[in-house]
Amino acid sequence: MSTNDSTHAPLPTGSGAARRVSQLLPVFPWDRLEPYKATAAAHPDGIVDLSVGTPVDPVPELIRKALAAASDAPGYPTVWGTPELRGAIADWLRRRLGATGADPSGVLPTVGSKELVAWLPTQLGLGPGDRVAFPRLAYPTYEVGARLARAEPVAYDDPMELDPAGLRLLWLNSPSNPTGRVLTPEELRRTVAWAREHGVLLVSDECYLELGWDADPVSVLHPEVCGDSHDGLLAVHSLSKRSNLAGYRASFVAGDRALVQELLQVRKHSGMIVPAPVQAATVAALSDDAHVAEQRERYARRRTALREALEAYGFRIEHSEASLYLWATRDEPCWETVAELAGLGVLVAPGDFYGEAGERFVRVAFTATDERVDAAVRRLGS
Ligand SMILES: Cc1ncc(COP(=O)(O)O)c(C=O)c1O
């Protein structure tokens, strides 16, 4: 091998080698929010941080008990998960989502859904020349996943207007982060038909599915959407939001059996294993609906209070029929809104974190305690 051949150049050593992958990735935007966070934190009554969608309420007791009961776990867990876990996932898909075709052979636990979103294109062998499409306003990790695989990221307004040439993976996200928009069964049905017609894998990120307020979100695995088969489809689910389990990293992917089996093989070789106590906790969480209903009530109260306060302050709220966010605008650049609210001690996320199309919006999470939400409402009203 010639060292002059750039395609076979030796890997740079030291920090040069360490930067190779991160250089593919977008700049991590949250650092830009730091000065506004400092301003908000200087409020005499403290910051109300509505910028991130991280749960703040306790992990339900029955889930903690299941985790503790499984804590004597000296051996390696399996990547595919225990039969109990796969059974609980399939039961949940059938019971809560109406996905009558779900079965334990078509499900796979993941270590939080973010890692799956980021690594799915790579784990499915996508690479240069392949295209990965996602909504123009979206959770940034869809683009990160495309870039990690060295595939081409493509943002869309309407998936059916995409050029199918080279398109290998199409992301849907309903309910959407950041807008809270919900796709109707008809929109889902048409997109599934389009993806199947063009041989494009459709992956639906449904991690807010149980958090519908003014809409009833439907899974891509529902027979009214996908018919009798899950071919060419995957649904991504997470317990982070519905069960306050962001700290546990509890999630799964389900759908096309052949794809799930392929992912299983790749993930076995790369050690993507959910810890055994978390597997047991996930079984408990998926088998109980009461804690989800209780958590939903907390969020519903906070959402209504914040929505009314923001509207009275002069905001217009768009979409936001589901998820944990209000997508709000005062028809001004988002960083002006961020600065003004930071002056009140309230931190929100600028819409341009989710794509240029969000540059006149802010995303307001209602994942703060009742006490902090009341503080925000008071400050917006004074
Ligand atoms: C749309 C979307 N997908 C996936 C995730 C990742 O969730 P987790 O990794 O906690 O399962 C998030 C988190 O905010 C999200 O908003």
Automatic annotation (TrEMBL):
EC supergroup of this enzyme: transferase
Keyword line: Aminotransferase, Transferase
Cofactor: pyridoxal 5'-phosphate
EC numbers for this chain: 2.6.1.17
Domain Aminotransferase class I/classII large: start-end pairs: 47-380
Secretion signal span: none
Coiled-coil zones: none
GO molecular function: pyridoxal phosphate binding; succinyldiaminopimelate transaminase activity
Family matches, as PANTHER family: AMINO ACID AMINOTRANSFERASE, L-GLUTAMINE--4-(METHYLSULFANYL)-2-OXOBUTANOATE AMINOTRANSFERASE
Designated name of the protein: Succinyldiaminopimelate transaminase
Organism expressing this protein natively: Peterkaempfera bronchialis
